[in-house]
Design brief:
The complex is a heterodimer of chains A (226) and B (111).
Chain A (H helix, E strand, L loop, with lengths): L1 H8 L2 H20 L3 H11 L2 H12 L4 H11 L2 H13 L8 H9 L3 H10 L5 H29 L5 H20 L4 H21 L2 H18 L3
Helix pairs in contact in A: 1-9, 2-3, 2-4, 2-9, 2-10, 3-9, 4-5, 6-8, 8-9, 11-12
Chain B lengths: L6 H25 L8 H23 L10 H18 L2 H18 L1
Classes of the chains: A mainly alpha (226), B mainly alpha (111).
Chain lengths: 226, 111
Amino acid sequence: MYLRGIFDAINVPGFALGSTMMGFSIIAKEAGFNIWMVVLTTASVWGMPGQVAFASLYAVGASLFLIFIAVTLANMRMMLMVISGANILNINKFKLPLWKKVIIFHLMAITSWAQIGFMKDQIKNEDLIKYYSGFSITIFTFGILGTLIGFYIGDYISNGFLRVLIFITPLYILLLVVNSKDHINRAAVYTGGFFAIIFYPIAGTWSILISGVLGGSISTYLYYNK
Amino acid sequence: MKTEYTNFESWVAVILACIATGIWRLIGVIFYNRIKEDGFLIKWINGVAYSMVAAVMMMILVYPSGVLSTTMVEHRLIALAIGVLVMIFLKKLLFAILISMVCFALLVNYS
């Protein structure tokens, strides 16, 4: 079952994630990160929106406080993903020590979470965790490789191609969040994006926090319980 | 206010980013059978999170720095709009990315 997870990952999910990590790495290098910072960020944050928020705010010289708040909020959904993933994997049943659970869920990204949600009806519950382990470790490897390649590829490709590669990352994330099944989250994406355009010329990087709170609050007010 | 980071501050920023993510995963692991996924507070925080992610991405696309700033904002927004429309109507992520990317490449290099 580990192998099945590995083989499923060495396909569209692995290559898609590898290329978005490549895009992140290019953005981060432009922002002024060195190779160790880029790799450590990918390995330890392991969540594209938070990583890109980090690199983009770093690029414009935002305060460390704002970077921390932005990355914290951008990755808050990790908690929900872990809660949902723990239920899908029925993790209680395995009586694992905390450190093992921490490692298992550190490897969880949107791709692997979506994959186990899709596979849970096709694989026996006892085997799903093996499948997930194979899948998520392979995806992680692709992510790190993409990050490494992205850091150096900029020196070897044309500017025209580089612009398209950088464009893919914010595009991928926006398309991913715009497709959220939850009405509140979907409305929050549109309102947050709109407010950022309006407030950035006035408030600079603080517009991210302002847009997030305003957009999220308006959307929750409009759609909660609907 | 634009800050020039020292080497030390840069590493502090990376460590803060690690903590900012790790903390949520840890809370999830410890409390997963006690937190209600559909409570009001969680819904609101999640809404703010989605909104902020969209805000950062729009900041990159509308007010970029670096190589992306050598392209026109109209081209970036047209390509994005095409991708969003494909995503809304066809619900195929890779197809939407591909179409949007090709449009962007064509607009940037040939218009």
